[in-house]
């Protein structure tokens, strides 16, 4: 009798699991259509914790982390741990330190904190140089770049640190390059967070093409000139502004601000 029950479970179990997964996907699709956000974001029965010294480093160095509730700090720390186990750090003429890895990971986790699927496969390594470096991709000196072919995000540490330490100039190299990663991911993936990102980005891109709005954006002088190089740089720059001067952004361009907020599912 017990053997028959076990056999039945082995036969029916996978079907039940597949059925539950399909049902969840259908329900979540409807939820996204109505509310424009995933059905849930965080589910970590056994969250991975940071060492006390690393938590203290985050507390001292990362304002976004300080503002989180205790519950969300646990989620944030778990995601940092997962990020560090997923992506490889490579130092080029510079020794990689724990502080470097934590600051890079925290920047990425901050940007993706409103997304359920945050560990994307569009890159697998972070390469760090001490300062500006010569890039073989276009034979020029760079502060940072995302190379989808090599699956690499590259930073000048000097410039990454400047962007992190100065939170009032709307220039943040880490946010900028990771924004390019998310854009590329949204083009290639259909997970709920990527789909929302893609739809909202398209709306932003269409407004970017609107001549009247484009003229308004330039006249306000809020975004630096580099934002108008193309729609991809525009996206990266507005995400820098979203995190560094959100109140000013919301006041000057409320509709665009709301699009960005929805795009990355921030409250």
Automatic annotation (TrEMBL):
InterPro entries: MtfA_fam, MtfA_N. Gene3D superfamilies: Glucose-regulated metallo-peptidase M90, N-terminal domain. It comes from Flavobacterium macacae. This is Zinc-dependent peptidase. GO terms for molecular function: aminopeptidase activity. GO terms for cellular component: cytosol. It comes from the Bacteria.
């Amino acid at each position: 009798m017990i053997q028959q029950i076990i056999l039945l479970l082995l036969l029916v179990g996978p079907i039940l699991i597949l059925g539950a997964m399909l049902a969840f996907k259908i329900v979540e699709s409807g939820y996204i259509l109505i509310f424009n956000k995933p059905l849930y974001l965080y589910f970590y029965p056994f969250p991975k914790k940071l060492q006390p010294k690393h938590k203290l480093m985050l507390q001292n160095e990362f304002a976004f982390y300080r503002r989180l509730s205790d519950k969300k700090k646990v989620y944030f720390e778990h995601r940092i741990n997962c990020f560090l186990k997923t992506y490889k750090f490579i130092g080029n003429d510079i020794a990689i330190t724990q502080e470097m890895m934590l600051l890079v990971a925290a920047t990425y986790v901050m940007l993706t904190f409103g997304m359920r699927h945050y560990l994307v496969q569009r890159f697998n390594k972070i390469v760090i140089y001490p300062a500006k470096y010569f890039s073989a991709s276009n034979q020029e000196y760079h502060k940072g770049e995302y190379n989808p072919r090599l699956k690499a995000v590259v930073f000048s540490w000097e410039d990454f640190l400047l962007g992190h330490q100065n939170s009032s100039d709307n220039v943040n190299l880490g946010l900028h390059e990771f924004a390019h990663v998310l854009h590329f991911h949204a083009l290639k993936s259909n997970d709920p967070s990527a789909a929302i990102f893609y739809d909202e980005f398209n709306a932003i891109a269409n407004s970017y093409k609107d001549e009247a709005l484009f003229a308004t954006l330039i006249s306000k002088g809020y975004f630096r000139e580099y934002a108008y190089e193309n729609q991809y740089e525009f996206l990266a720059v507005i995400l820098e502004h979203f995190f560094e001067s959100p109140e000013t952004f919301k006041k000057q361009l409320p509709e665009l601000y709301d699009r960005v907020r929805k795009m990355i599912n921030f409250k």
